[in-house]
Amino acid sequence: xxxxxxxxxxxxxxxxxxxxxxxxxxxxxxxxxxxxxxxxxxxxxxxxxxxxxxxxxxxxxxxxxxxxxxxxxxxxxxxxxxxxxxxxxxxxxxxxxxxxxxxxxxxxxxxxxxxxxxxxxxxxxxxxxxxxxxxxxxxxxxxxxxxxxxxxxxxxxxxx
Length: 160
Known about the structure:
By secondary structure, the protein is mainly alpha-helical.
């Protein structure tokens, strides 16, 4: 079973997103999530806001937030549901969501990667962890070039 916001609460994710100039809007249980690409309990994005319910998987929230984080603020305003069709951005987001997991108490990248695998992400090397650690050189370079991680791969928190 994947980790949900019901288990970690909204406060820590809200504070994390705020570091990047993003808002987290809590959607009432059973209500449709605005801007959700996948529907159901999956997080949604509109502008600089990430929408989620208590049953939203944490990895989904971090993935959608990652899409907004990698975008320059001027591009965020036009986002509704689908942030990009850029493969390099998508790859960067898959790495970034694990790093964001490290910034949430009680979550961590290993849990995010395991939940990505359970959800159905597919990678050439068979798992999210293997991808990030052994096959994501271009994504890491993209994140460094865009000022989101330092030379050692540590997350840089910026307020956009």
